[in-house]
Amino acid sequence: MDKKDITFIIAAFCFILVIAFVIKPIATGQPVNTGLSFATPAPSMTVTPLVIYANITTLPPTIIPHRTTTPPTPVPTWNQTAQTIGFVNSGTYQISTNQTLPQGTRINATQPDTNRTVYAVISGKYSGTTQIINIPFPYWELSYTIDPMMGPMSGPTIQSTAITPTLGQGISYSGIQGSYGSVSPQFSIQVMDASDPNRIVRTISPPGGIDPNLWAGIKEPTPAATSTTVNVYGNKIPPKYGTIEPTLTPSSTDPRPWLEKFFEGQRGYYFIINSQYLNSYTIQILIPSRYIGQY
Description:
The protein has two helices and 17 strands. The chain has a domain at 83-89 and 109-291. A hairpin with an 8-residue loop joins strand 7 (160-164) and strand 8 (173-177). The chain is rod-shaped, with a radius of gyration of 58 Å. The protein has helices spanning 3-28, 212-216; strands spanning 83-84, 87-88, 116-124, 128-130, 133-135, 140-148, 160-164, 173-177, 186-193, 200-204, 222-223, 229-230, 236-237, 243-245, 258-262, 267-276, 278-288. 11% of the residues lie in helices and 29% in strands. It is mainly beta. Strands 2, 4, 5, 9, 10 and 16 form a six-stranded antiparallel β-sheet that branches. The chain has a five-stranded mixed β-sheet with strand order 1-3-17-6-15, with no helix packed on it. Strands 8-7-14-11 form a four-stranded antiparallel β-sheet, with no helix packed on it.
């Protein structure tokens, strides 16, 4: 059998397969069986949307309770009666009586309104520590005065000096009638913050010191109005046993009372007072009159 015959046999075999697997199924309405598996498409489905009607119940509105505000505590008003501040034991504020009073800064400023009202008074003679005084005002003043033991209010001793002149011969002799006081009055006020015991608001003392003779206007002694003699040098010599008296003139230099201004307040204060050789002292806390009824 030659190659040509084999070719015809293979062609005939292929034709039989086409008839059996392609033409015959098409003629009978069956699917073509090729021996290969293919995915069969799923039949299309019409999806009807499901509508769910919810029974919605309207809730009543939420009622928010009203927040009540606590009214502020009213600040007590001043009854316009000056208070008297007493003294307490300095140990109440853990203060040693041997402590040195530190120096603070003095603040003075011009205040146009000069109308003032006495808010509190401190009076005494000896050193001490006061009780706490509440000052609810934003500005206040501290006025103080003293009566030293060697002052005009305590009856100063006016000294007179007797001089025995020599008129050029003999030994001169001078004597002093009366006695000079040897005491040295001292006074200071230490203002303390009651809310902060370590804070010294101010330390106050009389500016220029305490000089009763200067306040009283006592001038240098001058010869008494008696006859005098003139020596060969033209110098006037008091008569024998003449008296030289000091001159006392009306005072124009007395600085009392002193005044300190405080541009702070609305807190409690207490005062540490150092007093030596004084007959008395008086301290007043003053406030502007326009503050009355506002605090």
